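Incident log, entry 3
Record: Pentatricopeptide repeat-containing protein (633 residues)
Problem: checksum mismatch between cached and fresh output.
Input:
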Amino acid sequence: MLCLSRKLPLKFSPIFLIFHNFSALPKLSENMCNKLFKSPQKLGSYKQGDSTYYSLIETYANSGDFGSLDLVFSEMKTEKRCFLEKNFILVFRAYGKACMPEKAVELFDKMEDEYDCRPTVKSFNSVLNVIIHAGLFSRGLEFYDSVMVSSGRRRNFTANVLSFNLVIKAMCKLGMVDRAVETFRGMPESRCEPDRFTYCTLMDGLCKEGRIDEGISLLDEMHIEGLVPNTVTFNVLINGLCKKGDLARASKLVDNMFLKGCEMNEVTYNTLMCGLCLKGKLDKAVSLLHKMVSSKCVPNTVTYGTMINGLVKCGRALDAAQVLREMEVRGYHSNEYIYSSLIRGLFKEGKSEEAFKLWKDMIEKGCIPNIFVYSVLVDGLCREEKPYEAEQIVTEMINVGYKPNAYTYSSLIKGFFEVAQCDKAMQLWKDMWEIYEIDSEVCYSIVISGLCRNGRLEEAKLVWEQMFTRGCKPDVVAYTSMIQGLCNAGSMEQGLKLFHEMLYKLSDSQPDLITYNIIFSALCKNDKVLHAIDLLHGMLDAGLQPDIVTCNIFLKTLKEKQYLPQSSNEFMDELAVQLYKRNNIDGASEIIAIMLKKLFHPKASTWQKIVGEIFKVKKIHEAINKCWKNIFL
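Fresh output:
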């Protein structure tokens, strides 16, 4: 709406009174322009009626009526009226709200030549901000270079600190952190000193690239330059350290933050709690939550969501449900993402009744489930071997307008395979890519695995070939399933062929421990123990650590095959030594632990090497320091 407080020519005041009685201006037409602005009296560079035009620009820009704006600009141009830069800035912002950054650039390019208004750095920054805010970071750099760097372009202004802040932000978002640092270091040459936002933006970019130490060094540089960091600055660095898992340094940074007079806010607490949850330090995270409440810093949905996710990941879904109840008591409403995380956790822990109760509570409280919640419920029901009930949920999900995704179908197909309903699973898989056109490599792996486990190897081979035909690459699960299916069917040579295909990088998937154990078992059953031992050494070279399943495969074979040169005790002892030689002390100690449980006796030399390495003074100090850090946090 137009502002009546402006001093307007008397002959236009009735128009403003009319407009004032409406909530919004009508769309402007050419006839309206001619009637409203006819035969203006010129007063120097100002013409009678200019203020009305400016008010119209402001009103139509705020309402996003670009058609009327074009008419206003056209009429002003015809009347040879004076264009002001602030009017253009209003339109630039309007283009930003409408997600039309190219229109802003187009108008900026016309300012001087068509509208006789020389842009300043304010206009330039306004357009650059519109582009960056739209997420078009490459386009923002291109615009900056075209205006500030290209020699063929006339300009009467230089970049200021806001310009550099926007450019550095774009570079960091594009992962061009080195170029951002170079731009940052070049600012003084442009007679422009970085401010707190410049430092904070660059710190964030460095931390996201894992260059935490460089980010922290910028904090020291800020102090030298006389810039006082605020809570936001510290939060950026604390977040970087927490994501890296360096909670000790994050804690020290919090102390530094207090020394600088900065208070922890919700973001600080949420970041620290997230870091503690990622490291599995749930009790400390809960303590921090209580500290947050006692310090009168109000937890929000993000805080509670972080705690719930952390508890769920550590297998404490019931505790997470208690946090949800506390959250609701404090007046916060849970969202569908928190519900999906909690329902998934309850199902994984075998607490299906609690999961269903939570689902019903969510519906009763008016939280509309989205595709993620539906998919989690489907997956949970399939884990409980209730695929037909899960299928009903999928039908309900489709009826309310959600299209099943690859995760939904993967869970459902896997569920039917688990109850040996292979035909039903295959029909669902067919519907998935015929009706919904979903073609997922994960689904191929599930289908191949399900068919192989149910003894339908020939069908699995057809799906395997179809996967390649459709351009999908098998993952380690698909390879392992096919290898196991072939070995179980007595086709060990074909299984070995696929294994070597993985091993020699003819595929992007390398064998994991499960794959190796399947091959070890097949080779040992076929009296190819020496071949299996050769592959075991290759597995150790690849950095994989044998587990109890690996040991049991070989120990059973050594017990049954009396002709083998090594005894079980000698084999395990040699395995521990081989891991020690590869500097895998943790793996070697695990083998020693397995030997002791099975009442095997390591050689004195082996015991001395491994136990001596574990109890080195340096390692003891590291362990003690780790304990102190845990206590401190």
